[in-house]
Amino acid sequence: MSSALSPGQVVIAGIGATAFGKLPGRDTISMNVEACRLALSDAGIEKARVDAVFVKVPTSSREFMYGQKLCEALGLQPKIGGAWDQGGAANIGLISLAAASIAAGQCEIALVCYADNPRTGNKQAYQRPRGNDAIYGWFSTAAGYAMIQQRHAFECGDQTQALGEIAIACRRHGAANPHAQLRLPLGMQQYLASPWVVEPMRRDDCCLVSDGGAAIVVMSADHARRLGVPTPVPVLGLGQCQTSWDVQLRPSLTSTGAKTSGQMAFTMAGLTPADIDVAQIYDCFTITALMTLEDYGFFPPGKGVDYIRDGQIQIGGRLPLNTSGGLLSETGMPGLQLVMEGVRQMRGHANLQVKGARHCLVSNQGGTMHTHSTLILGQ
Amino acid sequence: MTVQPPQPDITPVNKPWWDALSEGVLTFQTCACGHKWLPPRAECPACLGTGWRWTVASGRAKLVSWTVFHVAYHEAFANRIPYNVAVAELAEGPRMITNVADAPDGSGLRIDMELELALQEEGGTVVARFRSANRR
Question: What are the pLDDT digits (tens) for B74-120?
Fold first, then answer.
């Protein structure tokens, strides 16, 4: 099957982010502008060359025509621009949209960005009543994942050790990252003693809630060469998939969009999981990362412990995971920090650099495993 | 004064469902195409048609999964933790969010266990809770 978008045709030319954590008084437009300024500067691209702006809707505040409001603040009149909502999968979803638009000749240089301030602003999005079912006490994002985790333990066996190892790896990597919001390493005993939030989910299974913004610059490899972009990172594979059904309506609670999305990305890249040297896997909750790795084909469902234990997903292991700390330790920002760390790994100057890494896999995921997107980066 | 949980947003589409509960009957929608579902919708999500009717559920169900809340995200639940929220699959097929009323902290719950309907009032609204079918 031929593909209109070939591996390496499009690159990530620049990355930028605000500080992560508590940024009181900063609105999302301001954080997006700062992140875009830094990403353009990193790419060495003048603002005036940007002709597309794709922004993920801030999770905690919905605003009419947000994409246009942002472009006004950026002083840009792009050909293509707008805000997109897919939950956390939207970042890589927007990279796909940018890449397809560039390949189709509809635009040349795109900004993909996201900012939110749930930490000092409004956390309501994460604690929300879930429609009319709130009368049953059905609240929050975490509880939906706990429902999935419980069913997963029944179908695939207890995964507590594997989930603990994921939290421990992310926390170790985050502790080494001077920009991370949570720099406290975690041990297995401490993980197991972590209090229940929504049982079977522990506090240390849950990601951070953070203020912050991030942006990346996307363009064709040809364009990057002509413009002298210093360290373009090729996009080798892209995929997406949506389960759509809410948790209680989903025919299977233990299979995610990662299966189809991963297959799309690996097929486009002409690679398999065995080719992946480092992975940035969406870890809003540890069960998300575990099921994503299962559905990507790294190990069969329920067989993760052997793959994961003994530091194998830590730096120096067979598949270092979330090398800047992920959502569990670097920042709770939903996903773009994972893309940025993937770019740093492929450039070869990440804080915890995986030596000789040639391929980095990045996953984004949204809702309660409603949406999934996959990105494979190369060199 | 006791704080009540959030009450449902009643619409022309879901009103018959809530009204039936208040009369002691759990219903779901059955389409001419054969598809059966909850929660109430104007169109069948399988064939997209409107040729559906309300059907009375047997009240038998099985437990798909559950979680036990140890934190309260709403003040109405502050003095109820730990409490469970569950997914039940009706014997007829449709699935719904509910509580297993006789196991608030989740003890004794098993995935796929048989449940039976236990309608209860919650702040003036009748809700469709379940209890374990084989425990009595």
Answer: 999 999 999 999 999 999 999 999 999 999 999 999 999 999 999 99
pLDDT in tens, A353-367: 999 999 999 999 999
A145 min Cα distance to partner chain B (Å): 9
Q: Is the peptide bond before A58 cis (omega within 30 degrees of 0)?
A: no
Q: How much is the mean pLDDT over chain A?
A: 96
Q: Does B113 touch chain A (CB under 8 A)?
A: no
Residue A1 is predicted with a pLDDT of 44
C-alpha Rg value of chain B to the nearest Å: 16
CA B50 – CA B13 distance, rounded (Å): 12
From A279, A293, A320, select the one nearest A169 (Cα to Cα).
Answer: A320
Residues in chain B: 136
Evaluate whether A265 touches A347 at the Cβ level (below 8 Å): no
| Size of chain A in residues | 379
pTM of the shown model: 0.97
Which of A143, A149, A195 is opposite residue B85, by nearest beta carbon?
Answer: A143
Which residues face A114 on adjacent strands? A214
The distance of Cα A174 from the centroid of its chain, to the nearest Å, equals 15
Question: Averaged over B30-43, what is the pLDDT?
Answer: 98
pLDDT tens figures, A53-64: 999 999 888 889
**Strand, helix or coil for residue B71:** coil
DSSP letters along A60-100, please?
T---TTHHHHHHHHHT---SEEEEE-BTBTHHHHHHHHHHH
Residues forming beta bridges with residue A365, ordered by sequence position: A372
CA dist., res. A84 & res. A89, Å (int) = 10
For residue B67, the distance in angstroms to the closest alpha carbon of chain A comes to: 5
Q: Are the C-beta atoms of residues A285 and A242 closer than 8 Å to each other?
A: no
**In this complex, is the C-beta atom of B69 within 8 Å of any C-beta atom belonging to chain A?**
yes
